[in-house]
Specification:
The structure is a single chain. The protein is α+β, with helices and mostly antiparallel strands. It has a single domain, classed as 4-Layer Sandwich (Double-stranded beta-helix). It has 11 helices and 15 strands. The strands form 4 sheets. It has a 7-stranded mixed β-sheet with strand order 1-2-3-13-5-15-4, covered by helices on one side. Strands 12-6-14 form a 3-stranded antiparallel β-sheet. A 3-stranded antiparallel β-sheet has the order 8-7-11. Helix 1 runs antiparallel to helix 2. The longest helix has 15 residues. It starts with 5 loop residues before the first helix and ends with a helix. Bound molecules: N-oxalylglycine (OGA) and manganese (II) ion (MN). The site of N-oxalylglycine (OGA) has 10 residues, from strand 14 and strand 15.
């Protein structure tokens, strides 16, 4: 086979030498080989969301894992179109980014089938009841609703960083009680006592402002945020409502309109999200995986005690 360009020659040399390697050395070399092909990204809005155009095989081999982690934090949301991955492949893609989250929710080796989560129609961060919310969540469209059912994302880093400096400092001193009651009360305003008691098992005190290892800070608000510690509830609701309105302005929001074979991954530590209403008889169905968190969402007291 004639070789026309330097790039082709390099690629052929790499392929030959990579194929002659074994195990881990071969995996590492493959990563280097793929990395020669630049990750193609398209900004979906100025402040949030990037679409990536990428070879599906390279994705599964983790060729862009470092770039993806960096892009998730910088752009909040990564959208990939036209990838026909089955659950094993989605799990493998998730595992390239970090540890696949397991637990009661994720029955199927880390996979959760999402059809109708009453709390998900309102802006929220996943896992605020836990001290280590997932770093990232991945959703793949299995059945798309013909109308509605879009997922919206808001950049909570950008929203925080645009606030006046004195307000940033003040907000950084506050703590918030997150409860399942707050999240579910919109959808289920009059629960049975039994249901209410199940909710009671899911709550926690979290800082209003998440200080990340990078030194950057983001807001942690949304439907699970019940009230601010040591503040009158009237003022507390007003502050949370004002921050929610600020963070969900159009300039911080990307709305994903799902098509079949879309995969979307978001940085759950630097964004909030919600699904827009859709007709349940449409059969909308998503498969979800989550990447374990590595940054605790903990108050100074909780961190000190750790
Ligand atoms: C979720 C979620 C939104 C959607 O799975 O955590 O909020 O679009 N889903 O289904
Ligand atoms: Mn969610």
């Amino acid at each position: 086979m004639p070789i026309d360009t330097v790039e082709e020659r390099c690629e052929t040399m790499l392929t030959v030498s990579v194929d002659s390697m074994e195990g881990r050395a071969r995996d590492r070399a493959r990563r280097v080989q793929w990395r020669d092909v630049l990750l193609n990204t398209i900004d979906l809005t100025p402040a949030i969301g990037s679409e990536v155009v990428v070879d599906p095989q390279a994705l599964l081999e983790g060729a862009y894992a470092d770039e993806f982690r960096e892009l998730l934090i910088r752009r909040g949301v990564i959208a990939i179109r036209g990838v026909d991955f089955d659950d094993d492949q989605l799990r493998a893609l998730t595992a390239t980014i970090g540890e696949v989250r397991q637990g009661a929710l994720y029955e199927n080796k880390g996979m959760l089938e999402v059809v109708h989560i009453p709390g998900s129609y309102f802006w929220h961060v996943d896992g605020t009841y836990t001290e280590m919310p997932p770093f990232a969540t991945l959703l793949a469209a299995r059945v798309v609703a013909p109308e509605g059912g879009e997922t919206e994302f808001a950049n909570t880093y950008a929203a925080f960083e645009d606030l006046p400096l004195d307000e940033q400092e003040y907000l950084s001193t506050l703590e918030v009680v997150h409860t399942m009651k707050a999240a579910h009360n919109y959808a289920v305003p009059e629960p049975s006592v039994e249901r209410f008691q199940t909710w009671q098992g899911h709550r926690g005190v979290r800082p209003l402002v998440w200080r990340h290892k990078s030194g950057r800070r983001s807001l942690v608000i949304g439907a699970t945020a019940s009230h601010i510690v040591d503040m009158h509830f009237v003022d507390s609701h007003e502050l949370l409502q004002r921050l929610l309105a600020h963070t969900t302005q159009d300039k911080y929001v990307y709305k994903h309109r799902w098509k079949a074979r879309d995969v979307v991954i978001w940085d759950n530590t630097g964004t909030m999200h919600r699904v827009r209403p859709f007709d349940l008889s449409s059969g909308r169905r998503m498969h979800r995986f989550a990447v374990e968190g590595t940054e605790p969402l903990a108050t100074a007291l909780q961190l000190g005690a750790a």
